Amino acid sequence: MREKIMQNLKKILVTFLAILAVVGLGMGTVSALSKDDTAELKITNIEGKPTVTLYKIGEGEYSERGDSFVRFKFIKGVVLSEDKPTSTEINKIANDINRGTVKAELIDKQENIIGAYNYRVTGASVYIANIITGAEDGRTYNPILLTASYTGEGVIKAGEVSVTDHYLYGETVVAKSSQPFIKKHITKSSKDDNRDTASVGEKIDFKLTIQLPNYSKEATNKTVFVSDAMSQGLTFLSSSLVINWNSQTLRAKNNRFEYNNKTIAELSFNDNSFHLNFNYDNLENHAPEVIYSALLNEKAIVGKDGNSNNVEYYLKRQHFSVQHL
User: What is the residue range of the signal peptide feature (predicted)?
Assistant: First the structure.
């Protein structure tokens, strides 16, 4: 009887060990997290061949054995909501990096980007694509937050962000990129082979249509500057200059265009040109239209060369021009 009991116990023990062996093999197929896990950050739909500069603002903390992720640790001065990072937080971090009050590590810098920016990182980490500049088409970019973090299945994945997207939290109407432009129209002149022509003494009317950039509220540089430099053959009529904005027609008083005690633009003159420095925040996303006139004078050039009339449009780190003859 005793031998039979021992035989049964041996059978149970063998069965139990077999179960442990199966469980052990199953556990062995699950990959542990590691500080050496890699992922690829990606920014898509980039246009204008800009320069992308990447800063590291936080990294993951792992367990002592390095096989489990604990949390993100941000560098000094960075405040960021991990669940719902807002546009305000992202732009403030970028501004602080620019000012030097946040000492972020410069990780990567790539120039003349076409289509997409890629960068492979190691371990859980957080980044700001802070300075995207030099786009040939005048496009402006706002700071972009990128993270490499773990999924519920323990797989590290990096964020992929399109510059055409809007911020998810905070200023959701603000796109991560925008393409401003300026167009000049001659509204009163004669046509000769698709060229605008006029006689000496005749008044020529101009209209500038401006597409504004998309700056965040936290941006520190919100430049919107327009100027027109006319040739000797054109005499600028300063009294003709008006700004159409938000269904209002504004005229300068003491070299300021104002509405409801808010400065819309400051005006200055230099020789035969004018300069308008717009207050971006006071424009309230309403694009201005600039109307003005000039006289064709006796110094006008006759023939194909014509009389040049150059409009310059300056934005944050961007500049482009339009010329009329």
Answer: none
